[in-house]
Design a protein that fits this description.
Oligomer: single chain
Shape: globular
Number of strands: 28
Order of helices and strands: HEEEEEEEEEEEEEEEEEEEEEEEEEEEE
Strand order of the largest sheet: 1-28-27-26
Radius of gyration: 21 Å
CATH topology: Methylamine Dehydrogenase, Chain H
Helix content: under 10%
Distance between the termini: 48 Å
Structural class: mainly beta
Strand content: 35-45%
CATH superfamily: YVTN repeat-like/Quinoprotein amine dehydrogenase
Number of helices: 1
Largest sheet: 4 strands, antiparallel
């Protein structure tokens, strides 16, 4: 009889341990923990790698890096370019990062020694203006405004060491561009590239074969003025994409500022429920809890139902929001050197 009692107790304890390890999803984010950084630059480039390693970049040629979760920061100016705005950055590891300046000049730099030195890897023509970068493994793409009736789409196959313009970049309207508010108007995954155009013709351009063929899709995002359109996109699963934006001249307006696609960007619908509480320049998917988080100058919102409804959770405003490569933390960056980590 004793052996059966012992077995019952063992199974009971085992079951209790299993229950105690079950992940608990918080009801909502608590807010943001802001970090002390050594700069007052406007930080639109953001790339967290782990909970401890985060890269950022911004105005005045600024780059920043933390190796201890934001307790301390290293910083500097990329190649002395103190009048250039580096609006996107892709951190690879603690030593390696690729930074993109919108213009002028429109340049891409890379460091392999933790930011001590930066080597210029590409410089665009005088009329070039870069809007954002996206990487998948060793392959990366940069989207730039229309030059000579073509979108300027750059490709790298060696983690940013060499870049070339795609010969089959899609045609674009004169003066056409993509917003460079957070570097997240472009996505890349396997053979796919997506990017969003801005202003009065805010559409989605998509290639399913690494830029050889392109399709263009209409969206219902607000797009009556040059200040309106899509500012940021994120994939939530194999088929789903969420995009946010609005009107950057009307920070508190929620008119048609959030859209959802369930077929890889071919068709789009407006958020059917409560929309983000203002113009939004960045959106990210925090798969750990199934949350979408979006930020803009007047505050932050989150969604638990794939972007169908949004709830405001913070008055803190930011330009960019990104999840780390391990999907265990989510960070935001903004004006006056602000970098923060989501708390929940």
């Amino acid at each position: 009889m004793n052996k059966y009692v012992s077995l019952f107790i063992f199974l009971l304890v085992l079951g209790s341990c299993g229950k105690s390890k079950k992940a608990v999803i918080p009801e909502k984010p608590i807010g943001w923990k802001k970090m002390e950084t050594p700069t007052r630059a406007s930080l639109r480039g953001l790339s967290p790698i782990t909970e401890q390693i985060v890269w950022a970049s911004g105005s005045g040629g600024t780059w920043l890096k933390t190796l201890d979760g934001g307790e301390t920061w290293e910083s500097g100016i990329i190649d002395g370019l103190d009048s250039v705005d580096f609006r996107d950055i892709e951190g690879i590891d603690a030593n390696t990062a690729i930074a993109m300046a919108s213009g002028q000049p429109a340049v891409i730099y890379k460091t392999v020694d933790g930011g001590k030195t930066w080597i210029k890897k590409y410089q665009g023509p005088v009329q070039a203006f870069f809007d954002g970068m996206a990487f998948f493994k060793n392959t990366g793409y940069t989207i730039g405004d229309v030059v000579d009736e073509k979108w300027m789409v750059l490709e790298t196959k060696d983690l940013g060491d060499t870049w070339h313009e795609l010969e089959l970049s899609p045609a674009g309207p004169a003066g056409g561009g993509s917003f460079a508010a957070s570097g997240s108007g472009i996505l890349a995954d396997e053979d796919n590239i997506w990017f969003a155009s801005a202003g009065k013709d805010s559409k989605i351009y998509h290639s399913a074969d690494n830029g050889f063929h392109w399709e263009k899709y209409s969206t219902p995002i607000l797009q009556d003025e040059d200040t309106q359109g899509i500012f940021s996109m994120v994939r939530i699963d194999a088929e789903g994409i969420v995009a946010v934006g609005g009107d950057f001249s009307k920070a508190d307006s929620s008119i048609n500022n959030s859209i959802v696609s369930l077929d890889k960007g071919k068709t789009w619908r407006l958020t059917p429920g409560i929309r983000p509480s203002g113009y939004r320049s960045g959106v990210e998917f925090f798969s750990r809890f199934g949350w979408l988080v979006t930020v803009g100058p007047n505050g932050s919102d989150f969604s638990t139902n794939r972007g169908d409804d949004w709830e405001r959770f913070s008055e803190d405003g930011f330009h960019s929001v990104k999840v780390d490569h391990t999907t265990t933390s989510i960070w935001a960056s903004g004006a006056n050197g602000v970098i923060a980590r989501l708390i929940y």
